[in-house]
Amino acid sequence: MGAALFGCAAWATTIVPHTLVDRARESDRVVLGQVLGSRVEMTAGDPRSLRTVVSVAVGRDVKGTGEAHLTVTQVGGDYAGWSVHIPGDATFRTGETALLFLKCGRSTADCGLVALGEGKIAIEDGVALVHDLFTKQWTRRPLADLLAELAAVATPKERR
Questions:
Q1: Backbone angles phi, psi at 87, to 5 degrees
Q2: Is 68 exposed, middle or buried (0-12, 13-18, 19+ CB in 10 A)?
Q3: pLDDT at 6
Q4: CA 84, 87, 90 angle in degrees (round to 5)?
Q5: What are the angstrom distances between the C-alpha of 46 and each of 98, 125, 137?
Q6: CA–CA separation, 70 vs 103, rounded Å?
Q7: For a pLDDT cut of 90, what percent of the chain falls above it?
Q8: CA atoms of 144 and 74, how far apart (whole Å)
Q9: CATH architecture group of domain 16-151
């Protein structure tokens, strides 16, 4: 009743469980990249317009091709005392390496994540920390195994 009386907006996100291969099929581009940094932007002082823009250096294209540097744009961020975050979305740290499942706009250098936080798999020392959406379990898998699994999704021209 409070929402009806006060006109509060509620945002909801639902992530439909799907496999890594499904995520790759939905992606325009899948890359192994390193986070160079990020910035938060707000338009006309409106905190509802907060966007985080993450700069990524592409080390390897797994599916699709494009620029050697790209940006991942996400709704929300922390800016001038304002904080907006989408539950289930990914967070990025400068210097980290990740496998990114991306949906791109007009340019393959300006993208968003497929399935929010499930569109980012952290890589450390050649090992990926993978979240299985069906079992809700986290597993450590060799990066080489993931890349081999995803190679089936890439077109012959994209395979290396």
A1: -55, 135
A2: exposed
A3: 36
A4: 90
A5: 31, 40, 38
A6: 12
A7: 54
A8: 28
A9: Beta Barrel (2.40)
Cβ atoms of residues 126 and 142 within 8 Å: yes
pLDDT at 87: 84
Alpha-helix runs per DSSP H in 11-156 = 20-26, 143-151
Q: In the beta sheet, which residues pair with residue 74? A: 52
Neighbouring residues of 119: CB distance < 8 A, sequence distance ≥ 6: 23, 27, 90, 100, 101, 102, 113
> What's the distance, CA 71 to chain centroid?
10
pTM, two decimal places: 0.83
The C-alpha atoms of residue 108 and residue 111 are separated, in whole angstroms, by 7
